[in-house]
Amino acid sequence: MKTENNFIQWKGTDLCMDFHCECGTHNHYDGFFAYYVKCSGCGQVYKMDTKVKMEKVYGNNFNPLENECE
Ligand SMILES: [Zn+2]
User: Fold this and answer.
1) Which terminus of the chain is less hemmed in, N or C, by CB atoms within 10 Å?
2) Cβ of 39: how many Cβ atoms within 10 Å?
């Protein structure tokens, strides 16, 4: 699957994320401005990537973005 079809510029978007650190710690985060996440187990800080995997979907049970920014 092609993974180069987006580049995200984070803008303080609200986040709900399950997190798995390389140290074995699992955590859950809810909050705004999640540009960086710190592991509660080992203290490692991670920067959020600008790439997110996208998958094709079919049907009409969505409300997708369709228009370009001005
Ligand atoms: Zn960790």
Assistant:
1) C
2) 18
Q: What is the CA(46)–ligand 1 centre distance, in A?
A: 10
The better pLDDT of the pair 3, 47 is held by 47
Distance from Cα 9 to the centre of ligand 1, integer Å: 25
Task: Determine the pLDDT at residue 2.
Answer: 57
Q: What is the mean pLDDT of residues 18-34?
A: 93
Q: How far is the CA of 26 from the centre of ligand 1 (A)?
A: 8
Cα-to-centroid distance, 18 and ligand 1 (Å): 13
Span 50-66, mean pLDDT?
89
Q: What is the C-alpha radius of gyration for the chain, rounded to an integer number of angstroms?
A: 15
Which of 41, 1, 50, 4 lies closest to 19 in space, CA to CA?
41
